[in-house]
Specification:
The complex is a heterodimer of chains A (118) and B (119).
Chain A (H helix, E strand, L loop, with lengths): L3 E4 L2 E4 L5 E7 L5 E7 L5 E9 L2 E4 L6 E3 L9 E3 L8 E8 L13 E2 L3 E5 L1
Parallel strand pairs in A: 2-11
Antiparallel strand pairs in A: 1-3, 3-8, 4-5, 4-9, 5-6, 7-8, 9-10, 9-11
Chain B lengths: L2 E3 L4 E5 L4 E3 L2 E3 L5 E8 L6 E7 L7 E2 L2 E6 L4 E6 L8 E9 L11 E2 L3 E6 L1
Parallel strand pairs in B: 2-12
Antiparallel strand pairs in B: 1-4, 3-9, 5-6, 5-10, 7-8, 8-9, 10-11, 10-12
Classes of the chains: A mainly beta (118), B mainly beta (119).
Chain lengths: 118, 119
C-alpha cells in the first residue's frame, strides 16, 4: 500500500541530546513537509522540501535540521538547541508545488511521532 | 498575511444528525485552496475535502460537503448523518495558489474544532 511511514511512534529525548525522526513515503511525491503540533493547537511548518537535495525553513525552524538525499526520505533532527521539543510531529507529502493545480496540491500525512523530554 | 479562524473549540452532535463546523479565512490572493482534515485520537491527519477559490460548485465527498461563501470568506464543513466514528478534531487549512519561488506550498491551519458525536 502507498503511504507515509513515520517512526518511531514515541520518542524520548534526554537533555542535550539530538534525536532524529524518520519519514518515508512511497507515493512518488516530490514535496515533503514537517509540521509540529502542540496540544490543542493547529499545525505549524518546520521545514519543507520541494525537490531532492533542496529544502527550506518554515515558520519555526530554529532548533531543527533536515536532509533530503532521497526522494522517498525526509528525516527531521531535533537538536539540543530546541529548548521545548515536546510535541507531536507530523510529516506530509504532496505531488509538488508547481503547475496550475498548485492550490489543489493535497498533502497526505503520516501517523506522527510523539516526542517527550525525559 | 493568511489566516484561518475556527471559532468553535468544541461541538456536540447527536448521532445521525447533521453538523456544521465553521471556518473563516483571510487572504489577499485571488487563487487559493481550502482543505478540511480530520484528526482522530490516534493523531493521523486524514484529508476530507478540498475547495478551490475558482470552483463554482460547493465541494462534496460522500457525507462531507463544503459550504463555500467566497464573499464572506467562509468555508464551513457540513457532515451529514453523523456517526460515532466522526468524533475527532477537525482542522480547516488554506494554501495560496499563486506560482513563483515565494510559494512554499505550505498549509496554514486553524486551531481546530473538537467534535463529539453522542449515541
Amino acid at each position: 500500500d502507498g503511504g507515509i511511514t513515520q517512526s518511531p511512534k514515541y520518542l524520548f529525548r534526554k537533555e542535550g541530546q539530538n534525536v532524529t525522526l524518520s519519514c518515508e513515503q512511497n507515493l512518488n511525491h516530490d514535496a515533503m513537509y514537517w509540521y509540529r503540533q502542540d496540544p490543542g493547537q493547529g499545525l505549524r511548518l518546520i521545514y519543507y522540501s520541494q525537490i531532492v537535495n533542496d529544502f527550506q525553513k518554515g515558520d519555526i525552524a530554529e532548533g531543527y535540521s533536515v536532509s533530503r538525499e532521497k526522494k522517498e526520505s525526509f528525516p527531521l533532527t531535533v537538536t539540543s538547541a530546541q529548548k521545548n521539543p515536546t510535541a507531536f510531529y507530523l510529516c506530509a507529502s504532496s505531488i509538488g508545488s508547481y503547475g496550475r493545480l498548485l492550490a489543489k496540491n493535497i498533502q497526505y500525512f503520516g501517523a506522527g511521532t510523539r516526542l517527550s523530554v525525559l | 498575511a493568511q489566516k484561518i479562524t475556527q471559532t468553535q473549540p468544541g461541538m456536540f452532535v447527536q448521532e445521525k444528525e447533521a453538523v456544521t463546523l465553521d471556518c473563516t479565512y483571510d487572504t489577499s490572493d485571488q487563487s487559493y485552496g481550502l482543505f478540511w482534515y480530520k484528526q482522530p485520537s490516534s493523531g493521523e491527519m486524514i484529508f476530507l475535502i478540498y475547495q478551490g477559490s475558482y470552483d463554482e460548485q460547493n465541494a462534496t465527498e460522500g457525507r462531507y460537503s463544503l459550504n463555500f461563501q467566497k464573499a464572506r470568506k467562509s468555508a464551513n464543513l457540513v457532515i451529514s448523518a453523523s456517526q460515532l466514528g466522526d468524533s475527532a478534531m477537525y482542522f480547516c487549512a488554506m494554501r495560496e495558489g499563486r506560482h513563483g519561488s515565494s510559494n512554499t506550498g505550505k498549509l496554514i491551519f486553524g486551531q481546530g474544532t473538537t467534535l463529539q458525536v453522542k449515541p
